[in-house]
Amino acid sequence: MSTSTGTPPASSGSRGGRQPRARIIAPAVSGQEIVLLVVIAALWVVLWLTTPAFLTAGSLRPLLIEVAPIALVGVGMTVVIVSAGIDVSVGSGLMVCGVITARLLVDAGISLVVALAVAIAAGALLGAINGVLIAWGRVHPIIITFGTLNVFAFVGRQIFNSQTVDNIPGTLDIFGRGDVGRTLGIPHSFLLMVLIAAAGWWYLRQTPTGRHYYAIGSDATAAELAGVKVRRRVLYAYVLTGALVGLAAIFTIAKGTSTLDQSIGSGKELAVIAAVVIGGTSIMGGRGSVLGTVLGAVLVQTVTSGVTQLGWPSQLSDLFVGVFVIIAVGTDLLRQRARRSQ
Questions:
Q1: Phi then psi dihedrals of residue 170, to 5 deg
Q2: CA 38: distance to chain centroid?
Q3: What is the b/e burial string over 288-325, where b = at least 16 CB atoms within 10 angstroms of the residue's CB?
Q4: pTM of the prediction?
Q5: Cα-Cα-Cα-Cα dihedral sign, residues 133, 134, 138, 140
Q6: Which of 62, 106, 217, 305 could form a disulfide with 286 if both were Cys (CB 3.0 to 4.6 A apart)?
Q7: What is the dihedral angle through the alpha carbons of 270, 316, 190, 262, rounded to the nearest 10 degrees?
Q8: CA atoms 163, 167, 170, 175: torsion sign
Q9: pLDDT for res 95
């Protein structure tokens, strides 16, 4: 992770003859994030020239609504991957949180606040299961979360009971596609995601406990010897990701119709991980940022929306996103090799 020196050392005549340490912090915006901004801007210009309707409110608003849940879960996934972990169960977790919330909305008529609390609590519980198994089971995260992916999917299907959840009331419309779901034309789900992403960016960049995750991702053993509570931090990362999965389930229900089926959450883990990796977070851990993840989510959804508006086969969006992931991972590996050679 590139760094910059904040405070110059004091002169040798300073009190006690000591020189205060220079504060080393990451730049507010990395080179890769600037590249992502340029690529997104270029794509938007190309799509605008090709399909002029792309830059209209009727096109951009649905794009932001689709970006919100992916980027939201990506905030938690960034913390997980920075600490050298991964969570491939988020799609199944979203299904569980979504069907539980939808059932309660229909059967019990719960309020918006209760729906939010239920979804977030359910997601946090699923995240805690992953976190405990990974932190104390000492099994690679991809093995654990691949297992829980299937367990959570089974649980979700049992709650669905081979039926759709119909007649979902408009309790969550404040995060939906209608007029009540936006302020000054911007969807509330996107605005809330931006606030949470900003908090995540500040936490990782500015707080000692946030920087612990970079230390864990770089060398967990060294971090533990330095006094970092590695297991506790790992648990918190997965609980955070689970809680954000629960909130993303609220966004997903709100942006759909009054019917929910078992396809909710399908493929979301791939979209989230793609956004995080494209955003510059190293899959090996120790480097990454929430800002990059949000930009990665915007890029992924821009590609998907562009392919749809151009009338191309939908499989091409998977191809393009896959190419971006390969480029991002390849760039990261080359960067790490250059550091080792230095």
A1: -85, 30
A2: 21
A3: bbbbbbbbbbbbbbbbbbbbeeeeeeeeebbebbeebb
A4: 0.90
A5: positive
A6: 217
A7: -50
A8: positive
A9: 97
Is residue 21 predicted with pLDDT exceeding 80? no
d(CA 307, CA 332) in angstroms, rounded, equals 27
How far, in Å, are 18, 156, 213, 263 from residue 91 at the CA level?
53, 11, 24, 10
Q: How confident is the model at residue 15 (pLDDT cuts 50, 70, 90)?
A: very low
Give CA–CA dist 87/141, Å, rounded: 7
C-alpha span between 299 and 322 (Å, rounded) = 12
CB 44 within 8 A of CB 64: no
Distance of alpha carbon 297 from alpha carbon 295, whole angstroms: 5
Query: Count of alpha carbons within 13 Å of 255, Cβ hemisphere only?
Result: 21
Contact 86, 141 (CB under 8 A): yes
CA-CA distance, 307 to 63, in Å (whole number)? 13
| Spatial CA neighbour of 217 closest among 244, 243, 237, 196 | 237
Residue type, 11: S
Domain boundaries, the chain: 86-262
Q: Please report the pLDDT score of residue 340 as a whole number.
A: 77
Length of the chain: 342
pLDDT tens, 182-212? 999 999 999 999 999 999 999 999 999 999 9
Read off the tokens for 284.
């090996």
Question: What is the rounded distance in angstroms from the CA atom of residue 337 to the CA atom of residue 342?
Answer: 9
Paired tokens of 230: 């590695």
Q: Which of 266, 271, 290, 287 is nearest to 331 (CA)?
A: 287
For residues 153 and 127, what is the distance between their CA atoms, to the nearest angstrom?
14
| DSSP output for 92-141 | HHHHHHHHHHHHHHHHT---HHHHHHHHHHHHHHHHHHHHHHHHHH---H
In tens, the pLDDT along 286-330 reads 999 999 999 999 999 999 999 998 999 989 999 999 999 999 888
